[in-house]
Amino acid sequence: MSQEGIGHESNGDVLGRPPVDIWRGFITVVERRATPKKHNPDLKCKYCLKVICHGQPTKISVHIFADSLKSRMKYARYTPSRPPIQDEIGPDGLGTISLTEKNKFHLEVARAFLTSGIPFRVIEYREMLCILTMFRPGMTLPMRQELSTTLLDSIYAKEVTNVVCDEQHTDKYMSSQLARVIREVENIVGKESVCGVVTDNASNKRISWELLVQKILA
Fold first, then answer.
1. Residue 20 CB neighbours (<10 A)
2. Taking Cα atoms as reference points, which of 70, 67, 66, 68 lies closest to residue 93?
3. pTM of structure
4. Do 19 and 47 fall within a single domain?
5. Could you read off the pLDDT of 68-99 as tens digits, one per residue?
């Protein structure tokens, strides 16, 4: 019996659970009721050829939408209720998605996980895969190990470059930076609103303040 109408038949009508489209992505290998204790059939995925034993709707849904990206993509192409997407899918499953775009997406996902404190294991949840790739089915998610290693290192290195400057902290450089910050504050608060600067006792900080005072009084 076709898996589209799993349920009890009576006078040609299918009773019970209505037909589910996801059955179309599978081939029945072993019929249900093949043995007295077998209540669900063994199914083979048409796209990755994996055999799902005791193919309950929940198990095959997890396979289509999480375990096999290629299966999920071809299922999306196969389902009549969705528009064809053959042109978007290439042999590698990414299609028109470039490597640069993929890497940028992975970095942004990792940044969201890191700044929000989301546990890395959440990336493996089926719901996370579905929501993050809903509008771009061909996109893949970074693996849990990538989040905690290469992507973490890349984001850290980028943040460090935003903080660390290439200029040497000489007295003249520090003086110019102090003057810039004071001007920014005065533009917001008002003229002569800055009356002092707190620093450590490094010699370049002391000399930079002296240079700044001389410039102001000049």
1. 14
2. 70
3. 0.39
4. yes
5. 555 444 444 444 444 433 334 443 444 577 88
